[in-house]
Amino acid sequence: MDCRHIVFYGTLQLECDKFRELELDRHLVFVSDCFFRGDLFDIEDMRTGHNYPAMVDGAGTVKGQLFHIREPSFLHAADLYEGIRPGDAPAQSDYRREILRLTRPEIDAWVYIYNQSVADCLKIDGGDWLTHIAEKNCGTRKQG
Fold first, then answer.
1. Are β-strands 51-69 and 95-101 bridged in parallel, bridged antiparallel, or unpaired?
2. Beta-carbon contacts of residue 7 (< 8 Å; ≥ 6 apart)
3. What is the DSSP secondary-structure string of 3-18?
4. Coil, helix or strand for 70?
């Protein structure tokens, strides 16, 4: 399906270091903030000690950023970044990429959906990764 929009709801948003490190502005044009149906979780990578977001189907609302894709070939690179390898069975990947209808703005866009269990993971109330990280970091600072 020819869809030229993608949503990032976590570490690839404009405000995050990865957006600049990966030079995503060469491949994408920011459209607007967006909202879509789903539940967002905070996943801890035991190997690196870093946390990342995972969106799964659910009744909540997730906040993300909508981008226009300059070249469709970008999707292959994005898939590799998200751990989706050509030829792998879908269950082998942490994520799968699907087209979802956003609730605001009302448009179809590619979204990465977490493909593993979130049973032992922290659900992010409000579905906003950037707010969650800001609150988490603020809560860990020493008073002085």
1. unpaired
2. 34, 36, 64, 65, 66, 67, 100, 102, 109, 110, 111
3. --EEEE-STTSTTSHH
4. coil
Tally of structural domains, the chain: 1
Residue 7: name the closest of 24, 21, 22, 23 by CA.
24
Distance CA 15, CA 37 (A): 22
Closest alpha carbon to 79 in 54, 46, 113, 53: 113
- Domain harbouring 36, CATH code: 3.10.490.10
In whole angstroms, how large is the CA radius of gyration of the chain?
15
- What pLDDT digit, counting tens, does each position of 39-49 carry? 999 999 888 88
**Among 15-24, 62-71, 84-93, the range of highest mean pLDDT:** 62-71
Range of the structural domain that residue 19 is part of: 5-140
Question: Taking the complete model, does pTM exceed 0.85, yes or no?
Answer: yes
Please tell me the distance from the alpha carbon of residue 7 to that of residue 72, in angstroms, as a whole number.
14
The CA–CA distances, whole Å, from 44 to 53, 58, 65, 102, 121 equal: 9, 20, 22, 27, 8
What confidence tens digit (pLDDT) does each residue in 79-93 have?
Answer: 999 989 888 887 889
